[in-house]
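user: can you give me the structure for this one chain? tokens are fine.
assistant: on it. calling the predictor now.
[tool input]
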Amino acid sequence: MKIHVLSPDVYNQIAAGEVIDRPYSVVKELAENAIDAGATEISIEIEEGGKKLIRVTDNGEGIAREDLANAYAPHATSKLKTAQDLFGVTTLGFRGEAIASIASVSKMNIVSRVRGGEAFSLACEGGVCGEILPAAGATGTEITVRELFFNTPARLKFLKSDAQEEGDVAGMVARFILSRPNIAFTLLLNGKVKYRSFGDGLAAALAAVYGGDILSRCYELDADKHGIRLHGYIGDRNYSKPNRTYQSLFVNGRYVVNQTVAAAVTNAYASYLMKRQYPFYVLFLDIPPEIVDVNVHPNKADVRFADNQIIYGTVYSVISAVLDGNSRALEYLVSTSPKQEKIPVGEDIFDPHPATHSAPAPAAVPEPVLPPKQAPASPKMTYEEAKRELEFKIPPQAGQGTVPSRGKQQPIFGVSEPTQREIDAFEENKKALMEAEKKQQRVDPASLEFKGELFRTYLIYECGDDAYIVDQHAAHERIIYDRLREKMEKREVVSQPMLVPFVLTLNPAEFAFLVKQFPVLRELGFEIDEFGADAVKVSSVPADLMKMDLASFFDEIMTSYESLRAIKLTDLLKDKLASAACKAAVKGGESLTEEEVKALLRRMNGDMGLKCPHGRPVAVHVARSEFEKLFKRIV
């Protein structure tokens, strides 16, 4: 077997596959370099989702003329000198791979000027560098990346749409704004300002990313425990989001997605969250560099802690204390409670009589009642002392597949999976049984004799030696539901314009995700369009669903973002159709005329095995023998 030594252009393109996969990762690497260079102002420009142009400009230290060529060299860095430095990494970048990787798959140009010096530029196309030339530029560095992946068409083909790529870039920049609130950031998407912060603190950074009202829904905390500092903002107990895109964790200033911390936060909120809802937080974890390894992921997207138990316990105990309102909360809260504004109960904008149909507002969870005086602070333990005296035990891989909970953990027993042959046989038997049952449940409507009603709700029919008791509401509900669903499946839905359009504001990732669903939504009868940079406007809805709660409906759609699966909007619409059918159907307790009884039976078409859209049976079959057993005529 012949062993080949790869040329630089080949191994740089291979390395680019690890470091640079899409435009957002280019922005990430270049912005991190700007931060490491001491910049206080960073501007990011994107065109056509970053495929055409990415430009990052900063006012940092700059690159000297003699170092420009080395900037393009693989594994050349200003941040490390020896292997020992890896145990105390405090910069965002340190491997020296980014510039070389980006340059190998794009047309790149660097213009830089050190303070008190002249500006110079060096261009590189597909990994081949030109000459260093004099240039015009302010102190700092401007890096321009054009035609990303121009020489690797296979990679270019797998990029997402411009809107999705822009959404991911915007999400990345939002995290930079949050992680470095002392730096002014500007993000321009196709010439329009998406984000602009001014480096005036974390509260202002939160407002720049999430809007000014976010602060009224959050607690600000700052805790120092076991030699670990946890600070930032967490949503109050009544504030949740439909997916995890509103969660940001920064470990020593680096954005990461870490399961140990995520599990601790989620479990602290467990008593307050509804199903498929997630807490909001922007948290900073400052840890001694020697007890955290940042070199465990190709994109530095996660870190490894020396002891997960200490980290889990610290995060869980601090957030639990704040949410539960116990005496320790005073030590952790910057302010004792968020500046809560009264949130009005939303009225149904489709309903001309909201008072008739609006459900009562849920009772608010009371805010924590904190003691008037701070409890005496207990002596603070260091990280090592806490490690020795840790009283609770969390599995070493806490949060890495199973989530520890407050309650007693249940054992998990292994279950052998069935073979494909067993599955196929099971499905065949199940299908045969269902077909047989279906045949038995269908009755000739002409053979049914109406015998009366019970409680103005149940209709009684006799057929030979069998009796059928039909729930008039369930039967009517199923008939209406089938009619609505058939119209929708045949695309016969009529759209009804709204008097007041519904506007939904989203974060960049959600916006890109929802825009992708526009064709399906429009087929289903919605008139929906983009409304600015981060909002959508619904102007019409399916006429049969005029009283649908749109906020709840789109909240359900956004929960699908979390799983990154193909969304089944038709399934969501079926839920709404079921609700519409339920409201329109005849109710229990209403007497039906003889003609209405006949019409209901006719529309059931003799199918006594029907179920309402919510799963309740429409009819119950009782054989004559069952009655005779009740009266002891037979044993």
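assistant: here you go. The chain has three domains: 8-202, 211-341+369-389, 445-619. Residues 420-441 form the longest helix (22 residues).
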